[in-house]
Automatic annotation (TrEMBL):
Keywords noted in UniProt: Membrane, Transmembrane, Transmembrane helix
Superkingdom: Eukaryota
Statement: the UniProt record of this protein carries the keyword Lipid biosynthesis: no
Listed transmembrane segments: 758-782, 794-817, 863-886, 907-931, 951-974, 1009-1028, 1034-1054, 1075-1096, 1102-1131
UniProt-recorded name of the protein: Cadherin domain-containing protein
Natural source organism: Halteria grandinella
Membrane in keyword set: yes
Length: 1162
């Protein structure tokens, strides 16, 4: 019925409306860049009221005149207008109104989208459409307003888009005398309409002015040379040796696509070109497209179709590609990003070659994402009344890249008022990590608001941050008297339980009673005992294994909560569980029976059978003692222990939290018993212990590093068929602890290290490549590295430098010694160098990469280079012997050239470049592994028990002798030629030019010995580092004296050539730069002296560490800048020399730059 008196209603159908609500969640992090996400939740509901707009669908002309005041549009007029893409107009004048008195005001608006779409405008009753309006449906609302009545009418405008090609039309080229086919790309119509194709040849042209093309009429009429198949939509070009040359032209076509509704595409040009001559390959359609993918995803694709105009075979020449890209010939790529290094933007670049000098370059842009994990629902803030027990289950977690980035881990902390996030929760909050469950029971003193930050981290380190708030409030006064108390157990429940590993026990709960006879819930929080405990039907089942043995107890919490409708009350009970190891005083028979699961039959290797008594009596079993080595202690609190065992997979199952005693030593005193958990130990012979320090931020903040002492306190025996292996008691291990940092800071350090490795590869490889084309460029690289090594070598002084200094110097030292082959990952597979007694001589040496006392391990890549150099020298020797017996002129010429250019100079260059690594490795081996030859014959045999140890010892002795002899031999060579007056002769420079490379000629007799003096300086410094490793202050003072002496020598002698010339880009005096480097060394040593126990304040030490890092950065940057300028100057000098030669050849007069000759009396 109508709400207006004396007015009837017209019945219409109900309509359905949809409502939408938008809720925000916290943002997530994509590679340390914060973003924010918004989720839209859709809710659908029905409304039963009648919609006035639907009356526009019904004509009421028959009764409207009798109903004054009614207003409606004529629904007989269609409300849908279909137009083809392009320029058009729609008139709304056919719309008419009924029963409008007076005539209403008409307005027009857009309903969907609400904003005016580009390409559509409304001018009065006229809708104008341009070619900016693309395919889609658009609603225009016409509103009629004649107070108090109003009506609206929706008009739908449907734009029909023209069909188009799925790929671009590219120029198709074919050589005269070849046959080729070109298929048009697939045609797509957005609305799925049928379509027609119109193809017209409009011109035949050429870019060669003197060339005459076939006429347009001839080309149109000839269907033999260029034919089009309308069924297959394919062009066929057929030419041969008899085809007139006038057909070698560009044939330009115009293609128009029209659908069945009349929508016509723009004119699409296509060129078919017949050519003479050689052209590179080209893309038939579109070039390679951008690839967007996610970590863990695999994508396989081929390069787009390509064609060679001359019919040559096309091959792919790879230039660059990311490590996760694999090329399967000829043109198939597989992308499989898997690690953090694979996240970001990458490029594949290459050339398509036809076997000649011409090629088609290409690049493929690849973007790899790793979305952070997030909750599937927004977190709901909680409100808890005091003494009430509530639980909140976190929503499930969703990760786009799952399961590849599984597992997802929690990190929860309590946000305090100063925004500091504390890992310790308020006392009334419990979080069951295994179940993702919060439990709250705040008392009156806990009233207030609490915020928790919940971080979800995937296995690759990407994370999202979410916040949960809990509000603890006081209950309303009238409700507190409605609940007399919580439910309770009628009889006492067991509070403590001691159970032996391998056994099982069940605890049944007593009867429960509530004083108000309310219904109740019994919930159990298993906590850390969840791995060996289950709860079902008011009973606990506890079944621990050997890995659960621990000196600390496990806590299970039992909570009884009533369901009182006024206020909730609960009561908590705790059960302490202690898991003990099996008794070690079992008889042999009992121990054999208990370990029967680990007996292995010698013949069949069958696990699980028991040996018979006769077998036990017949087999004489060997007692084997396992060996342990503390491999590493990380800056994130992980200790890695290597277990040398015949049955490591079995012994790992018995190692638990009671196997080791771990202590923290600082300044020679035990300051803490360290708790630990076992992270990994069942899958390899490396045992990973997560150390739980009380105050990790205070570890190793003084001059000396703190130490970790690990002792075995539990004996374990594994009985096998032919031997008994024993994990002994009383094995002691120790290692220094680096300053502790967070996981995120550790990831950044790893990123810096990998970036340094990549930079090393790039710098060395690019200089080697340049040296092929510009001989001598490599000398600038070696000069650069030697200058920087003067500073980085000081990191061997045994002082704990805060910050990133140790990491940066290690990266630079690896570059200086060209330690790029990562021999630590594979050399042990060739030579057995593994020993549980082998370790670095002190922390500074280990951080610098010298983590062993064995020569081969410390040499790293240098050992491989020595082997290659020895093989090269042996090859020259064999070639010389060959030429004695067989006189082959070409072989003799090659031998003479190789000997002249590479024999001595290459050897000298290698000795100078690798002298520090060779001297350090050999000196450490002789004076710390072989104890300076002060050892008995039995000790010597023990030190050289394995082949690897023997080789290391012998090579160490030989290299130490060579390191001492080499500078003396170099000095003898210089002295000999200096006395003979041939020091500057061509022959001397060809054979020994490296000795005096870059030095000033004839200024002072001692200048030619400068590189020899440098070697002696390094020898003295390295001896101080190795032999006085415990006296760091003495090391610093001696190095300061040496640095000052060398500064004075450089100022007085100025031994280096002045590279200034009129062709130079920037003139640099090498002597001044050497003085600058020595000043940097001096300042570095002075600040290092402040890092001794003189400075005890931690903040002051951190500031000095930053200064040291800045000094290293200044040194590296200035030396790289200098090397770049010198390289540019050298290129300009060579260019000038080449130009002079050309001018002299043309007999042109040339005025050289004036030369200033500097004379100095001595």
């Amino acid at each position: 019925m109508s709400n207006t008196p004396q007015q009837s209603c017209y019945q219409i159908a109900s309509t359905i409306f949809q409502t939408y609500s938008i809720s925000s969640t916290s943002g997530f992090v994509q590679v340390s860049v914060y973003t924010y996400s918004t989720y839209i939740t859709l809710y659908q509901s029905s409304s039963t009221f009648k919609d006035l707009q639907t009356t526009s669908l019904t004509s009421i002309q028959s009764w409207c005149p009798n109903k004054a005041g009614a207003l409606s549009f004529d629904a007989s007029v269609s409300n849908t207008f279909k137009v083809n893409y392009g320029y058009s107009e729609i008139s709304l004048t056919p719309l008419s109104l009924f029963c409008g008195s007076p005539f209403p005001v008409i307005t027009y608006s857009f309903y969907n989208p609400s904003a005016v779409p580009s390409g559509m405008s409304i001018i009065g009753p006229l809708i104008k459409i341009t070619d900016s309006l693309h395919h889609g449906k658009y609603i225009v609302r016409v509103n009629a307003n004649a107070p108090p009545q109003s009506a609206s009418y929706d008009i739908q405008v449907v734009v029909n888009m023209y069909p188009s090609f799925s790929q671009s039309l590219s120029k198709f080229v074919v050589q005269l005398d070849r046959t080729a086919t070109y298929s048009l790309p697939q045609i797509v119509d957005p609305e799925g309409h049928t379509f027609t194709i119109s193809i017209q040849l409009i011109s035949v042209t050429t870019q060669i002015p003197t060339h005459t093309c076939v006429s347009l009429a001839t080309a149109i009429g000839d269907t033999q040379i260029i034919a089009y198949d309308s069924t297959l939509r394919k062009f066929t070009i057929t030419t041969n040796a008899m085809t007139p040359i006038t057909w070698a032209c560009d044939f330009k076509y115009e293609i128009v696509l029209t659908d069945s509704q009349g929508a016509t595409s723009p004119i699409l040009p296509l060129t078919l070109s017949i050519i003479q001559g050689h052209l590179p390959p080209y893309w038939v359609y579109d070039p390679p497209k951008t690839v967007i993918m996610h970590i863990g995803e695999n994508i396989n694709f081929n390069l787009p179709e390509s064609e060679d105009p001359n019919g040559d075979t096309i091959s792919l020449i790879q230039i660059t590609k990311p490590s996760f890209a694999t090329l399967t010939p000829p043109f198939n790529y597989t992308l499989s990003p898997q690690t953090n290094e694979h996240i970001g933007f990458f490029q594949i670049t290459g050339n398509l070659s036809d076997g000649t000098s011409q090629f088609l370059p290409f690049e493929i842009n690849i973007t790899v994402f790793n979305f952070a994990p997030n909750f599937t629902k927004a977190l709901k803030n909680q409100t808890q009344e005091i003494n009430e027990f509530i639980e909140y289950q976190l929503p499930t977690i969703s990760d786009y890249e799952s399961p590849y980035t599984d597992p997802i881990s929690y990190s929860i902390c309590f946000v305090q008022e100063n925004q500091y996030c504390d890992q310790n929760y308020p006392g009334f909050v419990t979080f069951v990590k295994e179940q993702g469950l919060f439990q709250f029971k705040g008392v009156e003193s806990d009233v207030g608001n609490y915020t928790f930050r919940i971080t979800l981290v995937d296995s690759l380190g990407n994370f999202s941050v979410n916040y949960l708030m809990i509000n603890v409030t006081k209950p309303k006064s009238y409700r507190t008297v409605q609940n007399q108390g919580p439910p309770e157990f009628q009889s006492p429940i067991q509070a403590k339980l001691t159970i032996e590993e391998g056994k099982s026990e069940q605890i049944k709960f007593p009867q429960i009673k509530d004083p108000d006879n309310d219904l109740y819930d019994c919930s159990v929080n298993l906590g850390s005992a969840v791995t060996f405990s289950t709860y079902k039907n008011l009973a606990l089942t506890i079944s621990p294994l050997s890995s659960h043995v621990s000196s600390s107890s496990y806590t299970i919490q039992i909570i009884l909560t009533d369901k009182n409708k006024y206020t909730l009350k609960n009561k908590k009970y705790q059960l302490k569980i202690t898991v003990t190891a099996k008794q070690v005083n079992q008889t042999t028979t009992e121990r054999t029976q208990s370990n029967s699961n680990y007996y292995i039959d010698d013949n069949q290797m069958v696990v699980g059978s028991k040996p018979s008594s006769s077998q036990n009596q017949a087999i004489q079993k060997e007692n084997v003692t396992m060996r342990l080595k503390l491999v590493d202690i990380t800056n994130t609190g992980k200790a890695k222990i290597k277990v040398y065992s015949r049955s490591s997979s079995k012994i790992m199952q018995f190692i638990s939290n009671t196997t080791f005693r771990i202590q923290l030593s600082s300044g020679g005193e035990i300051v803490e018993n360290v708790l630990y958990t076992i992270e990994n130990g069942n899958y390899s012979n490396i045992l990973v212990l997560q150390l739980n320090f009380r105050n990790p931020q205070t570890i190793s903040i003084a001059q000396d590093y703190d130490k970790l002492l690990i002792s075995t306190i539990r004996k374990i025996s594994i009985v096998e068929s032919s031997f008994i292996e024993i994990f002994p008691i009383g094995v002691n291990m120790e290692g220094f602890i680096p300053p502790q940092i967070s996981e995120s800071a550790a990831q950044k350090q790893e990123l810096i290290k990998k970036s340094g490795d990549y930079a090393s590869y790039a710098l060395v490889s690019s200089n080697l490549l340049l040296n092929i084309f510009l001989s001598g460029i490599l000398a600038y690289l070696f000069g650069l590295l030697n200058d920087i090594s003067q500073l980085t070598m000081l990191s061997l002084i045994n002082i704990n430098i805060p910050g990133q200094v140790s990491l940066i110097t290690t990266i630079i030292m690896n570059l200086i010694y060209m330690d790029l082959l990562q021999t630590d990952l594979w050399i042990n597979n060739i030579i057995d160098l593994d020993s549980e007694d082998d370790d670095a001589i002190c922390p500074s040496f280990k951080l610098a990469g010298y983590s062993s006392k064995l020569t081969i391990k410390n040499l790293g890549s240098t050992f491989v280079f020595i082997f290659i150099l020895a093989a090269y020298q042996m090859g020259l020797l064999l070639t010389k012997i060959f030429t004695i017996f067989f006189t082959i002129e070409k072989v003799m010429n090659v031998f003479q050239k190789a000997k002249a250019s590479l024999y001595w100079n290459m050897l000298i260059r290698f000795i100078i470049q690798q002298y520090q690594a060779i001297m350090i490795s050999s000196l450490v081996c002789v004076f710390h592994n072989l104890n300076g030859f002060h050892l008995s014959y039995g000790e010597y045999l023990e030190k050289t028990a394995t082949v690897g140890q023997k080789i290391s010892a012998y090579i160490g002795i030989a290299l130490l002798a060579g390191s001492l002899i080499a500078p003396i031999a170099m000095a003898w060579v210089i002295n000999k030629h200096q006395r003979e007056g041939t020091l500057m002769s061509t022959r001397f420079k060809e054979n020994y030019g490296t000795l005096v490379d870059g030095l000033k000629e004839g200024a002072h007799w001692i200048i030619p010995y400068w590189n020899v003096i440098i070697l002696f300086r390094w020898a003295i410094q390295i001896s101080i580092f190795v032999l006085l490793k415990e006296a760091s202050a003495v090391q610093i003072i001696i190095n300061l004296v040496i640095s000052q002496m060398f500064t004075i020598l450089v100022v007085y002698l100025r031994p280096f050539q002045n590279q200034s010339s009129c062709e130079a880009w920037v003139n640099i005096d090498e002597n001044n730069f050497k003085i600058f480097n020595e000043i940097i060394v001096t300042y570095y040593l002075i600040f290092m002296l402040l890092l001794t126990d003189i400075a005890s304040d931690n903040e002051q030490r951190l500031f000095i560490g930053m200064v040291e890092l800045a000094i290293i950065g200044l040194c590296v940057f200035s030396n790289i800048l200098k090397a770049g300028i010198v390289g540019i100057n050298e290129l300009k000098r060579r260019k000038a020399v080449k130009r002079r030669k050309e001018l002299q050849q043309h007999k042109l007069r040339f005025h050289p730059c004036p030369i200033l000759i500097y004379h100095k009396s001595i």
